[in-house]
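Title: [Solved] Trigger factor 3D structure

Original question kept below for reference.
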Amino acid sequence: MQVTETNTDGLKREFKIVIPAQQVQSQVDDRLRELSGQVKLPGFRPGKVPLSLLKQRYEQSVKGEVLERAVHDGSHKLMNEHNIRPAGLPKVEIVKFEDGGDLEFSVALEVIPEITPMDFKTVSLEKVTVDVPESEVTESLERIAKRQRQSAPVENDRPAEKGDVVVIDFLGRIDGVEFAGGKAEGQYLELGSSMFIPGFEDQLIGAKKGDKKVVKVQFPADYGNAELAGKEAEFETTVNEVREMKDVPVDDELAKSLGLDNLDALKKSAREQIEKEYGSIARARTKRKLLDVLADKHDFELPEGLVEAEFSAIWQQIENDMKNDRLEAEDKGKSEEQLKAEYRDIAKRRVKLGLLLSEVGRINNIQVPNEDLTRAVIAEARRYPGQEKQVIDYFQKTPEALNQLRAPIYEDKVIDFILDLAQLSERKVSPADFAREEEEAAKSA
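Solution (posted by the thread starter after getting help):
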C-alpha cells in the first residue's frame, strides 16, 4: 500500500492511497477459494469447483466485497501508521479502479488538534456547602407524613371542604356529545390538588354525599389533547362519598412504615437527602465555574466539522423553539443573524471543552468502570416500568446508545480528576443565601 499526503491545511488532511492491482487480485482469488468450499454447483463436489468457473460466476460481486474491505482496511492502516486521530468520520472517495489496474482512493479528514492542558493545580475555585437547619429537616418530615396520610369518611355528613377527598362518578360532554376519556366511576379527587381541569374542583366544594352537580369548565388552550383544547365542557357529576384526610404523626411508627428503625433514623435519612440535593446543585455550580476557567485558559484550533455539527444540532432546536414560540425571553427580538452568531459561539465553546476534557481523560487514562455503566443502564431502565428488560436489551445491542450513557459519566470523572488537583476553598451558606445566589447565577448565565 502506497500512501501520499496530498494536502495539509490547518487541521485538514488529505491522503492518496494506492493498493497494487496484484494485491487486489490476490485478495479476490483468496475470497473465491473460500467460496469454493461453500457453493454447490451441479457436477462438482464441494471444494472441487474450478477457480475459473468461480471467477466467471462470482468475481464481480467478490470484487465489490474486496474493494469495500480494502478501502476500510487501508483507511484504518493509514490512521495507525501515521498516528492520526480523526475528528469525526473521514471522507473516503474512490479515485480509480479498473479491471487489472491499481485501486486508488482518497481520504480527507480533520485531525484532533494538539492540546496542552493547563496546570490544574493553579486553578482556584470556591466550593459552597449549605448549612441545613433543623427547621428544614422538620419541614421535610412533615411533607413525608403528609404523603402518608389516609382518607376516612367525614363525620356528620358535612359538606366537602378544600383538602377533602370526594369519590365521584362523572360523564363529560361537549356540545351535548360525550367524548373519549370524559367518563369515570369511583374517582378519588382531592379538592384543591389542581389535578383536574381548572375550575372543576372548586365547584365541588360544599357538595355532600349523594349530591348531583353539573360542573361546567373550559379546557385550557394548551391542553394536551388538541381535540379538547380551549373547548367548553359539562360534566354530570355524582358525589358518592366525602372523605377527610387524617394526619399522620411524625413518630417511630411513621419511620417503621417506611422501613426504618425509628424516628431518629428517619430524621437522619431526611437530612442526608436534603444535603445530597443541595450538594448536587452546588457541584453543578462549581462545575460551571471550572468550565468557565478552562474555556478561558485554553486556546487551540477547532475542527470545523465538529463545530458545524454541534451548531447544526443547536440551531435545529432553536428553529423548533421559534416555530412553537418557545424562545427564551432574552432571544426574542434578535435577528436570525444575531442568534446564529451567538449560538455558533456556544457551539465553539462546547467543542473546545469537549476536546479538552477528552484529552485530559486520555492523557490520564481515565476510564468508566463497567459497574458504573451497568448502574446507568439500570437507572435508565427504571424510567420505563414494565419495559425494563427491553430497555436493557436495547442498550446491550446498541453500542451508540451505550456510548451516549457513557459520555456524561466519563465527563464527570474527568471533572472530578481536575477538581481533585485544583485549590478549593469552602464557604458555608444558609439555604436562603444559596437560593438567592443560584437565582443570580441563572440570570447572569
